[in-house]
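Feature request, filed as a ticket because there's no other form

It would be nice if the structure record came with a short human-readable summary line next to the tokens. Right now we just get the raw output. Example of a typical job, pasted below so the devs can see what we mean:
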Amino acid sequence: MVQMKKVLITGVAGFIGFHTAKKLLEKGFLIVGVDNLNDYYDVSLKKDRLAILKDYEGFVFYEKDISEGLDVEKTGGVIHLAAQAGVRYSLENPLAYEQANNKGTLQVFEYARKNGIKKVVYASSSSVYGDCQEAPFKEDFKLDKPISLYAATKKYNELMAYTYHHLYGIKMTGLRFFTVYGPWGRPDMALFKFTKNILREKEIEVYNKGEMFRDFTYVDDIVSGVIKSYEKDFQYEIFNLARGETVKLMDFIKAIEKATGKKAKISFKELQPGDVLRTDGDISKARRMLGYQPSISVDEGVKKFVEWYKEYYL
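Raw output as currently delivered:
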């Protein structure tokens, strides 16, 4: 168990990676963090997250691109969160997804194989469900029609994970994250962009006349699921990590208006290619097998984000 307390976290300067590493450091884990600090969004935000982690004695950081290999010290397990994110960006830069998500994940699994590491928890995405008409989405649905390249790479990662489990006995747990939000979040996410423009009294762009539904999940709830997955001992599993309820996009905007005290100026746009109308995660399996229990409501979570945003930017 002592060795299991030393964990490699990829994407450690990213949104979920940062929160996961911070929570594990607080629990006494030793974290070997890896991130390439790319410029997909503001690098200073990543560096500020990293500065917080570097204050912990048990934290070691390597600035590396995982797609080029992982020549770092051996750990007891891996939490693989590094990825090129964003559905819309995958329309413009498809090769970035092949490099980071497919080749990068393969290198992480190879690091585990070569070092005799027997436990990997890795991030998948609710995007793998595509425009699935049956809801809520369950882990055992047949998923062979991804509608974005990002989703296709995440489904491929799940297939690779099974192969490495089958061939080398590595315990693999995949986590399908549903619309994660919260403090220190990514600037390309809706909550971040909406809050920024509403506070500046600028227009926000809302697609499909706001007729979209999302299972918005607060980052602390996601992190609790990640850590529970790591501390459990599964051979090969996939779990949805979601709030477990859908919220209409216009109601989400109302929560931002309430938290900011300002009215949104809305410009309605057509549905973007690759976007889905609804995400709706069935979390009964995660509740049963992980003890996963999301607790932060959208109103509470949005309020926490807006408070952080004002403190950090204003």
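Something like this underneath would help us a lot:
The radius of gyration is 19 Å.
The chain has a mean pLDDT of 96.
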